């Protein structure tokens, strides 16, 4: 392994420690190296808090501080150039006279986007970019999708029978497709995304809570479509236990944990939703049904991942058909040890939408 890649890998390890704490910001890690010895390490720990570079420089011990101006900084994302919640990291690096910076990948955020690298170079600092770039991009896939495509990273999720149905014809009749093992997995997935979306029928018939109760970490913001505001107030989704957005055609109003967000239902619903979610700074969404809403995302060609829980021995002969993916690539299959249930993970062929 090359030296630069070794230290960048350490940056990525550190960055991951911020998982679940920093969204909608990216996870970022930084190390400061003097003569092959790490003298400082830091990562972005909390949304609104100091950036990785700040924590890295602050971590240098008193006896090593005179070495800062003769060290190389490795950082998994381009240092920022803007005054946000904190001053620019590029200025901090210049202030400490760090002579060389190695960057994992460029920051696509409009206020940065190359300006950080430029600022460093103009100050005479040697900058190398693109070290372990693919891994650094993968690390913050949601953040990059959000800023380059101006929409959230979209994950479609459903459970289906062996013969391709997601519910019985009579939707109020329960159909047990998944088991406790896959339920835990679904809660883990919920803990990893900023938002969770369902359509009106799913909210009404399934009355889901959409919270993460079976895994550690936070619950996503709940998102529900309710054009005419007809969903009964007694639903779990409207219990105020978790931040919830009700997309509707009637009113724009904030009530404590409940935001009524007005959109036009006459135009393409997926596009309307994406614009609203971008405005709300929700960088990733897991869509949990129903079939019609999932299919709208597929038909619009706007999805990044699909996760399909399949009960391979349950045949029901007739029912509500599962969504149909188009040109998907299978990337992973998780076989569950019991009940012949497997989870199929696909990525979208669409890299431009
Ligand atoms: C860095 N190092 O560790 C992170 C960066 O609102 P603020 O001030 O926290 O700025 C957020 C933006 O800063 C975020 O959108 C991204 O472009 C960049 N994040 N930059 O130099 C870091 N987390
Ligand atoms: Zn910064």
Automatic annotation (TrEMBL):
Gene3D superfamilies assigned: Cytidine Deaminase, domain 2, Dihydrofolate Reductase, subunit A
EC number: 3.5.4.26, 1.1.1.193
Pathway: Cofactor biosynthesis; riboflavin biosynthesis; 5-amino-6-(D-ribitylamino)uracil from GTP: step 3/4; Cofactor biosynthesis; riboflavin biosynthesis; 5-amino-6-(D-ribitylamino)uracil from GTP: step 2/4
Pfam families assigned to the protein according to its UniProt record, in alphabetical order: dCMP_cyt_deam_1, RibD_C
Superkingdom of source: Bacteria
Record keywords, A-Z: Hydrolase, Metal-binding, Multifunctional enzyme, NADP, Oxidoreductase, Riboflavin biosynthesis, Zinc
One Gene Ontology term of the molecular function aspect: 5-amino-6-(5-phosphoribosylamino)uracil reductase activity
Cofactor note: Binds 1 zinc ion.
UniProt keyword NADP present: yes
Catalytic activity: 5-amino-6-(5-phospho-D-ribitylamino)uracil + NADP(+) = 5-amino-6-(5-phospho-D-ribosylamino)uracil + NADPH + H(+); 2,5-diamino-6-hydroxy-4-(5-phosphoribosylamino)-pyrimidine + H2O + H(+) = 5-amino-6-(5-phospho-D-ribosylamino)uracil + NH4(+)
InterPro entries in UniProt: CMP_dCMP_dom (IPR002125), Cytidine_deaminase-like (IPR016193), DHFR-like_dom_sf (IPR024072), Eubact_RibD (IPR004794), RibDG_C (IPR002734), Riboflavin_Biosynth_HTPR (IPR050765)
Cofactor(s) this protein cannot do without: Zn(2+)
Domain CMP/dCMP-type deaminase: 2-128
Role summary: Converts 2,5-diamino-6-(ribosylamino)-4(3h)-pyrimidinone 5'-phosphate into 5-amino-6-(ribosylamino)-2,4(1h,3h)-pyrimidinedione 5'-phosphate.
The family this protein is said to belong to: In the C-terminal section; belongs to the HTP reductase family. In the N-terminal section; belongs to the cytidine and deoxycytidylate deaminase family.
PANTHER family: 2,5-DIAMINO-6-RIBOSYLAMINO-4(3H)-PYRIMIDINONE 5'-PHOSPHATE REDUCTASE, DIHYDROFOLATE REDUCTASE FAMILY PROTEIN (AFU_ORTHOLOGUE AFUA_8G06820)
Protein name: Riboflavin biosynthesis protein RibD
Organism: Terrimonas rubra
Taxonomic lineage: Bacteria, Pseudomonadati, Bacteroidota, Chitinophagia, Chitinophagales
